[in-house]
Design goal:
The chain is mainly α. The protein has 5 helices and no strands. Helix 1 runs antiparallel to helix 3.
Length: 117
């Protein structure tokens, strides 16, 4: 079970790091799309992206180095809060596939955190 938990933890971390990079350092074509679709300011989008990158890194790096495990749980809680917000946002927009993918990512995070010793 440890291997499965670590694989899930790494998958969630990679998704968050990549998504965070997209939000924090937006390519010009993406910038307009995010501005039109997100109900928050560009500064908030950038801060959210930075938080996602740091949370994704902390989710894997801290337990792997066996240091500051409580901080890894805090990172997981922060990621869960972001995911719940994303579920609400996509559900309100009736984006079924995105909502489903976000819920599955939230479930994977929960399994990874609970199953990792």
């Amino acid at each position: 079970m440890d291997v499965v938990a670590w694989v899930l933890r790494v998958i969630v971390a990679v998704v968050f790091v990549l998504h965070g990079l997209l939000f924090a350092w937006q390519p010009p074509g993406v910038r307009e799309r995010i501005r039109d679709e997100m109900p928050i300011t560009p500064l908030q989008v950038r801060l959210l992206g930075i938080a996602e990158v740091l949370g994704g890194i902390a989710l894997v790096a801290l337990p792997a180095a066996d240091v500051l495990s409580p901080l890894a749980y805090a990172a997981a809680a922060g990621i869960a809060i972001v995911l719940i917000g994303a579920v609400v946002l996509h559900f309100r927009r009736r984006e079924v596939l995105t909502t489903t993918g976000t819920v599955l990512l939230l479930i994977a995070l929960a399994i990874a955190v609970v199953a990792t010793p």
